[in-house]
Amino acid sequence: MPFLSSVFSGIGKRLASKSSPEPTVYVVWGKQSSPYPDLEHFEPIIGIVANEHECFALEEKYSHVEVSWEARKVSGAKNNEVTTAQPLYLTHTTLEQYDVDSDGNPLFGTMDFPRPSGVYFTREAAKHEAPDEYLHLVHLGEIDLHGVGELLD
Q1: What is the DSSP letter of 100?
Q2: pLDDT, tens digit, 9 for 90 and up, residues 46-102
């Protein structure tokens, strides 16, 4: 029987390597009082973390903020490890004006309650899969209660 167990083991390894899942990350929001006069509350993306334990830790650390999260697959990351400080690219179909800057220009962004349409491992993958959407760069593990990351396009 050792022969059969080695055969099954080999088949299992080959199948696992062919169907290796894309890694999962957690997009984290933080509902809080708004610093903007026209909004009572806002709920920006405050981070992207690697596991749900980190979500619970953020909920505990920022008890004055209503923390929520959602698991998302990282598209284009199959067979790649997603590590701390890894740049990830979120895509958004719409961005709403939430304030104006000191020059009176509208500020559009990912502040009020953004729902990314996708999370991507590379900028190229995001641009290829969602060419007409807004691109938002966030580093895994970066936390900012006012909204994390940088709007690229």
Answers
A1: E
A2: 999 999 999 999 999 999 999 999 999 999 999 899 999 999 999 998 877 666 777
Of 1, 24, 3, 5, which is closest to residue 13 (Cα–Cα)?
5
CA dist 150 and 131 (Å) reads 18
Q: Which amino acid is at 150?
A: E
| Angle, CA of 9, 10 and 12, to the nearest 5° | 65
Provide the pairing of β-strand 66-73 with 118-120. Answer: unpaired
Please say whether the beta carbons of 46 and 30 come within 8 A. Answer: yes
Q: What's the token pair of residue 140? A: 């895994």
Rounded to two decimals, the pTM is 0.80
Length of the chain: 153
Residue type, 50: A
Q: Which two tokens stand for residue 23?
A: 């890694």
Q: What is the distance between the alpha carbons of residues 106 and 58, in angstroms, rounded to a whole number? A: 31
Determine the 3-state secondary structure of 17 from DSSP.
helix
Measure CA 115 to chain center.
Answer: 10
